[in-house]
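Run: sequence + magnesium ion -> complex structure.
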Amino acid sequence: MSSSDAPVIASPTNSVPVSPSVQFNFENTYARLPDRFFSRLAPTPVAAPRLVKLNVELSRSLGLDPDALASAEGVEILAGNRLAEGAEPLAMAYAGHQFGHFVPQLGDGRANLLGEVIGQDEVRYDIQLKGSGPTPFSRRGDGRAALGPVLREYIVSEAMAALGVPTTRALAAVTTGERVLRERILPGAVLTRVAASHLRVGTFQYFAAQGDIEGTRTLADYAIARHYPDTAQAKQPYRALLDGVIARQAHLIAEWMLLGFVHGVMNTDNTSISGETIDYGPCAFLEVYDPAAVFSSIDHQGRYAYGNQSRAALWNLARLAEALLPVLEQVKGSEEATLISAKEALAAFDPQFEAAYGAGMRRKLGLFTEREGDGALAQDLLQIMAANRADFTLTFRRLCDAAAVPERDKEVRALFADPGVYDSWATGWRRRLEAEPASAQERAAAMRMANPAFIPRNHLVQAALDAAVERQDLQPFEELLDVVTRPYEDRANLERYATPARPEECVSQTFCGT
Ligand code: AMP
Ligand code: MG
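>> structure
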């Protein structure tokens, strides 16, 4: 596709009325980029918007008034039936490799970027409606989202934020009063997603694939200004941009690995330039530690298995490097020098990932200092956890108590099919802890901040979605959200949320629901 075939402006801000009373204070920059970066169009109004959940804390941190958002007019904005003043709705253009296959045009097929707001942290955030109707990028899709996947994204992205992982956020979920047809008929919903930006590796690929060097450079300059402002002064800003994205992705994937998070659909269009986790489709958390764990129903080859995630990220970053080659070359002057530079940048991924992962594992094990053999100590634990089918999250959480009081080893060893293998490992661990300066209490407290008690366990997420969709019962969703957004706190009477699924409760497969 050549750039002249870029999506036409389907309609201006069609017939969606502007709300007089709900203020967003939009300050838009993406809408100032050239026309071929997006397609301007408003959301498609829905029959009967109803608020399911509003993220009050997040709205305040974005300088938005939660009461106004929860008002009838606010809910109409969150459903796409009205626009806040200053909104310049658009669907972003992007491409992407999906499971290794390049698709030159994906784009927002069911989302509208409404605009950008400056949060109280002085950071600029995108406000996007997801599930807000068809766009020129919808291909065969209906432009809509079903309630189940919207609530899944709400729960898991908010859990990730509370766990301290860079991520897009959920500002609100509304139902539309309309049905969407998937494998069956389901209630429709719209998610309001907040992101540092929605720039993806696939956004760069979109321009690169068209040979649009000017577009690639404009996008790179935009990404630098928005996410990597320090690199603007670098001798080679585009190389510095590439380095920056690689560094953030290396740290991000390390965080995922340390929490047992399986993204499930690490396509290049789901790889964010800002380094946030984006696109909570078929994601899931490990129960038993297993590098080969795959949950997504469409990941037949295990391309995005838990243990493949750093490799998949590096592959995606290589696609970013390729897309940036033309602009890198203009600085480097020769094709050969450019290739060497790009390879050099990519070679930094593994060491940064390993360092972040290693440091995180030491935190999980209560090690404040670094010694030779720490990596092996962690690997040995993971290996016996796998062989003994020990729950990943619960083992590490119980280890916090054992670090404070050795008698509590019994609660850890109970998770192992053969408790004796834990005892041998723990002997080595305690020996290593003797070399640590921290007191047992300090150590246990630090470990409790690195090993969550609560993650959104797959069976609990599924039960919460089922209750909401099948019985219009939002109580399980509310309760689960409350628990997973305070993941590091020990709280009474919540054992159910900290305990692995019983065999009959186990959810081994997840679906994107698109
Ligand atoms: P995802 O699998 O959510 O990353 O989406 C991949 C691509 O498919 C993106 O371009 C989406 O906008 C598009 N897409 C997903 N679901 C729909 C839908 N229901 N209608 C239109 N486009 C969709
Ligand atoms: Mg996506």
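>> summary
Residues 309-332 form the longest helix (24 residues). The first strand starts at residue 18 and ends at 19.
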